Amino acid sequence: MVNDQVDRFFEVLADPTRRQVVRLLGEGPQRAGKLATATGVSSPAMSRHLRILLSAGLVTDERVAEDARVRVFRLRPEPVVAVQAWLDQVQAHWQENLGSFKKHVEDKGTL
């Protein structure tokens, strides 16, 4: 399950516009129009990107009480936490391997 979430995260963020949207949402919630302007894409293109991010669970949206047509998008922390956990596992694996290699080299140097 976690690996599926990590795979989907990287798949969705392979697109540079979506990575930029995630960076922008990391600064705080924003409306689609503001995201479109900031990324330099059309409103329909931004809608497609946001739909993909929503379906992957990377962002959420909510309606503004004053105007039900307006949606505010927020970054969800859970997928980022899952990717960070995966990266921590990869780093731990490499740290262990490099530690073993260092010990091996040091042991060979004393012969």
From TrEMBL:
- Please give the name of this protein: DNA-binding transcriptional ArsR family regulator
The HTH arsR-type domain is annotated at 1-98
Q: Which organism is it from?
A: Kribbella italica
The record's section on PANTHER family has:
TRANSCRIPTIONAL REGULATORY PROTEIN
Keyword annotations for this protein, in alphabetical order, are: DNA-binding
Looking up SMART domains in the UniProt record yields: HTH_ARSR
Q: Which InterPro entries match?
A: ArsR-like_HTH, HTH_ArsR_DNA-bd_dom, WH-like_DNA-bd_sf, WH_DNA-bd_sf
The source's superkingdom equals Bacteria
Molecular-function annotations in GO: DNA binding; DNA-binding transcription factor activity
Indicate whether DNA-binding appears among the record's keywords.
Answer: yes
